[in-house]
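Predict the structure of Reticulocalbin-3.
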Amino acid sequence: IVDRIDDNKDGYLTTEELKNWIKRVQKRYIYENVAKVWKDYDLNKDNKIAWEEYKQATYGYYLENPEEFQDATDQHSFKKMLPRDERRFKTADLDGDLAATREEFTAFLHPEEFEHMKNIVVLETLEDIDKNEDGFVDQDEYIADMFANEEGGPEPDWVVTEREQFADFRDLNKDGKMDKEEIQHWILPNDYDHALAEARHLVYESDADKDQKLTKEEVLDNWNMFVGSQATNYGEDLTRNHDE
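Done. Here is the predicted structure for Reticulocalbin-3.
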């Protein structure tokens, strides 16, 4: 893997090479994931997944046997997820023929990777956290998404810090709540490249001689850092071969 990351074959891994590799691994993971489930949904083998095929495969049993889903939570979650999936499917389906190509289905399953799906990601996040359904996320809703204070005692320090984060960095217009634009800035920030951040972190932690690049020895000396990283698909790539 170290040799494959080293694009110019100079024996060193730079931050740029690591960043490009992490992006490649991430992309491959996404497309492998789609390939894995494709045949479960493309029931008529026409190399497209129609909304009806997806709906049948995912919700068919629920739609045909509603009496088995009398339990309020089951009922609620299926009732909520079906229109939500349909809305997401239609947004991913760029040509509007209600049948997803492989690329459109990839956008449906991994919307955060596609520019035209950003509004859906923001909307779904808002709907998940906005418990009073006023179209905004206030500070308590933001905290409740991460921490449920069941014992009713004082909040842990990290929660207090998160409240400060909300006030200082999430609620940009200081009106006490996050609107869609502020939610997008939070979950899909334009100025943050997570592959670059991960690459910088790996170099910083493993670069023993501080020359801003890694030798194979430096990587192997810090192998546990790489096993836990996206650069090795969290260790998975160490046990299988790829022809990249």
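The chain is about 55% helix and 5% strand.
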